Hints:
0% strand; 9 helices
Amino acid sequence: MPKLQKRDRDYFERRLRDEFPTIYAGLKAGKYKTVNEAAKVAGLVKPARPLNTLKSVWTKASPTERREFLAWVSSRTAPARKTSPKIPSKAVVNADFYVMEWVKARVVEIMGERSINETRVMQELGFSSLDASLWRAMRRSPPSRIRPDLANALRAWLHDHRHI
């Protein structure tokens, strides 16, 4: 098995000198305080993500520390997303949270009548326009399930557009 390359200060300084001469010149001129900082600017080193740090520390934590951390997190959680009020009407999902066939047809019909796209529908539902969960549930075979909050918002949206 070949020996792994040592990724130390000398390695990154050598790469900066050879591949990124302007950044290396900035390092020597004092624009960057450390080789690591210059390597991050050059893209040779990726900045640490807090999530990766949390995962790493979690694996080293004792069961007691994990319980304490979970209690702390649960005490600091953001308030739940404001959801649409429940509107008593025909079910939009079945017991397993699969979108009903009539709902799929109705959503497409409303979109056509209003000349809107999926992005606009998700914005009107109060979700990110990048959230594709509803469309996966409507188009995929086998379909995906949708979240209860999305089902409630969809029910309210259909109710609001019942005249179309």
